[in-house]
Design a protein that fits this description.
Shape: globular
Radius of gyration: 21 Å
Helix content: 25-40%
Bound molecules: flavin mononucleotide
Distance between the termini: 39 Å
Number of domains: 1
CATH class: Alpha Beta
Length: 447
């Protein structure tokens, strides 16, 4: 039986895509039926419209600000194999174009707090929220690669503590800018005349450790008040940051138990920050491969794996951990290390290698082939069984599906998995709200 749009049995679904060659698997762009038109607006419009047919909450575009060069101190493996960081269009511009070809889908953009000024980011995201009539979200990242630092005039990137200190102040400043126009400040009365009421637009006069911003913003308050905040930090500091600010958190747990404990921890931290833990939606990332039978799904997964070159995956893992993995013996497991890059990815891989003893030479292939916790390859019924078990166990509020390939991988999810979720009353059949905050059941912040 279908449930009401606000049913607690309903899950939230985000789709992870990058405006480049790789979304879910490194083999995706090499698939015989892949659309390789990744530079065309129509590619992103097509993905977004498919997701919208499936009533997804949001499309999430990841981003990085450099071509990674952590493996062998060289970009070659990224470029040759079309690995995750080989090419990235600017996600804000891509999403602005997607806004025009969709009506309901949330549009989450990754923007770094380390390499952009807050005024520019507040303005761009308010613009996206206006152009999409209330569907913008911001994946708040602090960036973690040396190569990114070098593209912005720094020799060394900031320490994790400094990055998060800066990010805290950055988000604070953006919030002040978004609130610098009262909701009713834009009057647009041509007769009075009163374009905007000067009494309702105020300066912010922010003087902080990292930023001095006078304000106000030169964009009026946007439909959602501010974009939905998304985050994916997994270090202790990253989780506190998520608990303080985020409304959607992406995690990469290697198992249902790991997801349960991550979600419980994030919710407890959110309460310590004085927040309602239900205002934070935790979505584990998985790359599902679905087909009409288990055998066909396994064949499809095997094809994607065979197309994911080991060196491409190793190169991406090296950039995620910000460590040159070619320096370690390839016939041995990944050694324990201090990771300056993404701790979430490190924990995931470290736990997997501890369990399986997989040497580095195989790990690259496995990592590049996409994130597949068990139970996400099979029929729609198999996958929805797994999703429901995770959701019922309190391991998540929904999922972030990393799109295995475009267009077939995403079409299969919408054609097979979504109806199965809907028929079990676990997902909306239509959009009931106009904004992304509405889809997620999140309150609009007052000015
Ligand atoms: C699923 C997932 C997606 C992420 N997407 C991005 C991204 O698109 N761009 C980026 O710079 N960092 C991205 N990150 C990195 C995090 O935002 C964060 O900067 C990183 O995990 C380092 O913080 P931590 O040490 O607290 O984990 C992602 C992390 C995860 C787990």
């Amino acid at each position: 039986m279908d449930q009401s749009p606000a049913s607690p049995r309903h899950m939230h679904l985000a789709a992870f895509v990058s405006a480049g060659p790789v979304s879910g698997t490194h083999g995706g762009w090499r698939h015989p039926a892949a659309d390789r038109n990744i530079l065309a607006a129509s590619y992103y419009a097509g993905v977004a419209r498919t997701l919208e047919q499936g009533c997804f909450d949001l499309l999430f575009l990841a981003d990085i600000l450099a071509i990674p060069d952590r493996l062998h101190d060289s970009m070659d493996s990224q470029l040759r194999y079309g690995a995750l960081g080989a090419l990235r269009l600017d996600p804000l511009l891509v999403l602005a174009s997607v806004a025009g070809s969709t009506r309901h889908l949330g549009l989450a953009c990754t923007v770094s707090t380390t390499y952009y000024p807050p005024y520019q980011v507040a303005r761009a995201l308010a613009t996206l929220d206006h152009l999409s009539a209330g569907r913008a979200a911001w994946n708040i990242v602090t960036s973690f690669q040396q190569a990114e630092a070098r593209n912005f005039g720094l020799q060394e990137h900031l320490s994790r503590e400094d990055r998060y200190d800066r990010a805290d102040e950055f988000v604070e400043v953006c919030g002040k800018l978004w609130d610098s126009w009262a909701d009713d400040a834009l009057v647009l009365d041509p007769v009075a005349p009163m374009f905007a009421d000067p009494a309702k637009v105020r300066r912010v006069d922010h003087e902080g450790r990292y930023f001095q911003v006078r304000g106000p913003l030169n964009v009026s308050r946007s439909p959602q008040g501010r974009p939905v905040y998304v985050q994916a930090g997994a270090s202790d500091r990253g989780r506190d940051f998520a608990a303080r600010w985020a409304e959607v958190v992406f995690i990469t747990p290697p198992s249902i138990e790991a997801a349960k404990s991550a979600r419980a921890d994030l919710r407890a931290r959110a309460e310590r920050f004085g927040r309602d833990p239900d205002s934070l939606k935790v979505l584990p990332g998985v790359c599902p491969v679905v087909a009409e039978s288990r055998g066909i799904a396994e064949e499809r997964r095997a094809l994607l794996q065979s197309l994911s070159a080991a060196e491409a995956g190793l190169s991406t893992l090296a950039y995620h951990l910000d460590a040159d993995l070619s320096q370690f013996p390839q016939d041995q497991v990944l050694p324990a290390m201090e990771v300056s890059g993404v701790q979430g990815h490190y924990k995931e891989v470290a736990e997997m290698t501890r369990k399986t003893g997989m040497p580095l030479s195989k790990l690259g292939q496995q990592y590049g082939a996409g994130r597949h916790a068990s139970g996400f390859t099979g029929t729609a019924a198999d996958i929805v069984d797994t999703m429901a078990a995770w959701h019922d166990a309190g391991a998540c509020d929904g999922f972030m599906f990393q799109v295995p390939w475009v267009p077939g991988g995403v079409e299969d999810i919408v054609r097979l998995v979504i109806p199965e979720l809907q028929s079990r009353g676990r997902f909306r059949r239509r959009y009931a709200d106009a904004t992304l905050r509405g889809h997620l059941g999140l309150a609009r912040p007052p000015a």
